[in-house]
Amino acid sequence: MKLFGKKRKPSQKAFAVVTGAGSGIGRSFALELAKRGGTVVCSDIDLDAAKETVSLIENLGAKAFAVKCDVGNAKQVEKLAEQAEQLMQHPTTLVINNAGVGLGGKFDEMTLADWKWVADVNLWGVVHGCHYFVPKFKQLGHGAIINVASAASYTAAPEMTAYNVTKAGVRALSETLSAELRKFDIKVNVLCPTLVPTNIIKNGKVPHKGLLDYALTNLAFTTSDKVAKLTLDRLDKDQLYTIPQIDAKLFWLMKRAAPNLYAKFLGNSYRFMK
After folding, report:
1. Tens digits of per-residue pLDDT, 180-190?
2. 262 tagged catalytic
3. What is one cellular component GO term in this UniProt entry (predicted)?
């Protein structure tokens, strides 16, 4: 018997795997799922951080498990998919591919090693998560996927080339999977926020960190907890996109309504800023 279908909510009492669950949006997803009665495998490259999230969940009276995993490593994600089922003693019903890193800088100043670093985590990490969980969902007869992209996937801001490209790939992957997997009762949501207070700026390789830290503090318009709750609610409503902030929505509408004009506006704005 299916745990959820058209009338059921995949975030309720989910058996979930969350990558990058040691902090930020990932931790907020894990905690919100626990509040909804779920069991959560908290995966992170920093095992101590994942264990902290597990402790917070256990304080809520829910079950959680910490697993160390580098999502850029396919073998580790394959092991995570198998280990999660063993730990929870139940098939996984929801995977949240959240782990990500930040990278910025002028295109011609970035190395190919920089590109590989960000692509391994931001793009391949999501591909790995989908690759190893989708067959399990098909076998189970249902499932749900949340892929964390970014408004960068469509805003195409200058000096964020590699980051933009990887997040655009995550959005395209999510859109494709949504169409392809619907007949298998596998729901997909892609999260596309702008600034959210997390550690991605602190731990990333980005220019103007002082300015970005100020923007995160004063212009984020939301919190990771609100983003996680909204995304899970939209998944429950079978909505493909979660665009949580007003600025993210504005850029989305501008890009869709007048893509050529938007590109010219972006280029001219950048030229006058330099």
Report:
1. 999 999 999 99
2. no
3. membrane
Name the token pair of 146.
């949340």
CA quadruple 116, 152, 129, 25: dihedral sign: positive
15-273: CATH topology is Rossmann fold (3.40.50)
Give me the residue spans of the domains in the chain: 15-273
Q: Is 11 helix (H, G, I), strand (E, B) or coil?
A: coil
Residue 33 to residue 56: CA distance in whole angstroms: 12
Q: pLDDT (tens digit, 9 = 90+) per residue, 35-92?
A: 999 999 999 999 999 999 999 999 999 999 999 999 999 999 999 999 999 999 999 9
Radius of gyration over every alpha carbon of the chain, rounded to an integer in angstroms: 18
Q: Is 55 helix (H, G, I), strand (E, B) or coil?
A: helix
| 56: its two tokens | 């917070």
Regarding pTM above 0.90, the answer is no
Residue 22 falls in which region: left (phi positive, over 0), alpha (psi -120 to 50) or beta: alpha
pLDDT tens column, 86-122:
999 999 999 999 999 999 999 999 999 999 999 999 9
Question: Active site residue: 154, 163, 241, 262, which one?
Answer: 163
- Nearest to 161, CA basis, from 112, 217, 212, 124: 112
